[in-house]
Amino acid sequence: MSNSTQSRDATRQVAERTMKRVNASLRKRYRAERRFRMYGILSVMLGIGFLAVLLIDIAGKGYTAFLQTYIELEVYFDPQVIAPDGALDEETLRMANYNSLIRESLAYLFPGATSRSDRRALGALVSNSAPFQLQQMVMENPGLIGQTARVTLLASADADMVMKGMISRRVPEAERRLSDMQIAWLDTLEDRGRVEKHFNKAFFTHGDSRDPEQAGIWGAIKGSFYMLAVTLVLSFPIGIGAAVYLEEFAPRNRWTDLIEVNINNLAAVPSIVFGLLGLAVFINFFGMPRSAPFVGGLVLTVMTLPTVIISSRAALTSVPPSIREAALGMGASKMQTTFHHVVPLAMPGMLTGTIIGMARALGESAPLLMIGMVAFIVDVPKGLFDPSTALPVQIYLWADAPERAFVERTSAAIIVLLAFLILMNSLAIYLRRKFERRW
Amino acid sequence: MTATTLLLTVLLLSVAGFVLGRRRAFTVADARGGIRSLHSLPGHYGLYTAIWVGLPALLLLFLWQSVEPSILTELVARDLSAEVLELPPERVGLIMNDVKNLVAGNIVSGEISPEIRTAADHWERLESGFRWSRTILIAALAILGFVWARRFISPDLRARNRVEGVVRVTLIACSTIAIFTTVGIVLSVLFESIRFFQAVPITEFLFGLEWSPQIAIRADQVGGSGAFGAVPLFTGTLLIAGIAMLVAAPIGLMTAIYLAEYAPRHVRTVAKPLLEILAGIPTVVYGFFAALTVAPLIREFGESVGMNVASESALAAGLVMGVMIIPFVSSLSDDVINAVPQAMRDGAYALGATKSETTRQVIIPAALPGIVGGLLLATSRAIGETMIVVMAAGLAANLTGNPLEAVTTVTVQIVTLLVGDQEFDSPKTLAAFALSLVLFLVTLVLNVIALQVVKKYREQYE
Amino acid sequence: MESSVMKRERPSSEQELSNTPVKRKAASAAMSEARSGEIPKETIGDISHPDPVMVCRGVNVFYADKQAIFDVDLDIGRNQVISMIGPSGCGKSTFLRCLNRMNDTIDIARVTGSISLDGTDIYDRKLDVVPLRARVGMVFQKPNPFPKSIYENVAYGPRIHGLARDKVELDEIVHSSLERAGLLKEVKDRLEQPGTGLSGGQQQRLCIARAIAVSPEVILMDEPCSALDPIATARIEDLIDELKENYTICIVTHSMQQAARVSQRTAYFHLGYLVEVDETDKIFTNPSHKLTEDYITGRFG
Question: Does B301 contact C at CB distance below 8 Å?
Answer without folding.
Answer: no
